[in-house]
Amino acid sequence: MGEYTFTVAEIFAEPYAATPQLTARVRIEETTGVVVHAMALRCQVRIEPQRRGYTEADEAGLRALFGDRDRWKDTLRPFLWMQCNTTVQGFTGVTEADLPLPCTYDFDVIGSRFLHSLGEGSVPLNLMFSGTIFTRSGPGFGVEQVPWDRDTRHDLPVQVWQEMMRTYYPGTGWVRMDQQVIDRVADYRARHGLTSWDETMQHLLATEREALT
Predict the structure, then answer these.
(1) What does pLDDT average to over the chain?
(2) In this structure, how many other beta carbons lie within 10 angstroms of the beta carbon of residue 54?
(3) Rounded (5°) CA angle 196-200-205
(4) Residue 195: its pLDDT value, please?
(5) Domain map (residue ranges) of the chain
(6) Cα(first)–Cα(last) distance of the chain, in Å?
(7) How would you classify the pairing of strands 140-145 and 21-30?
(8) Prediction pTM value
């Protein structure tokens, strides 16, 4: 059986992907001399929000996720951001592999809402690895499992995520709504002769403000 350790050298925004994607450059080290033929690597990426501090500006966006600040000692808990996988080519000793981290701006995803709320600093991540390792053993091959306790922490700069989203959604964002709500908003837009969805939302907000005054 081999002995494996995993560390993350860096996480960067993939500039030419079809959809928003970060890439984690994972360093894999095997210390017993086993010849690895290939590795089917899986990873759970968890965000650990309790491992960083927050400004007053952050607090406004995080209230919907974690409640008021006086509750954060109980509500700031690790949560799953994504699950991803890749195939690692054969190696002996040490290798590096790129692990794709597909991202979304969908605000129904708690990770997107959390990241959108942060102004600066870093995002504390815990990458938990699993998978299947194919080794060369004499004239044939052997099969091992990545031990369940292989994980590593990494701090992702908030700026990396922000710049990636600005590249794919410059000056914009998007939210998912129920089809019936979309139909009602579209009808409202048509009845008031509004020319864009932005104008429609601004008109609705202005109407609400007038009703409250």
Answers:
(1) 91
(2) 18
(3) 150
(4) 87
(5) 4-168, 179-212
(6) 72
(7) unpaired
(8) 0.82
d(CA 95, CA 11): 16
Distance CA 192, CA 209 (A): 18
Contact 156, 8 (CB under 8 A): no
Q: How many CB atoms lie within 10 A of CB 25?
A: 14
Q: What stretches in the chain show pLDDT beneath 70? A: 173-174
What element of type H or E holds 72?
helix 72-75
Question: Which amino acid is present at 119?
Answer: G
Q: What percent of the chain has pLDDT over 90?
A: 61
Q: Are 112 and 47 in contact (CB under 8 A)?
A: no
What does CATH list as the number for 4-168? 2.60.40
Query: CB neighbours of 62 closer than 8 A, spacing ≥ 6?
Result: 54, 114, 117
List the strands of the sheet with 94-102, edge to edge: 4-13, 21-30, 94-102
Residues 98, 99, 105, 111, Cα dihedral to 10°? -130
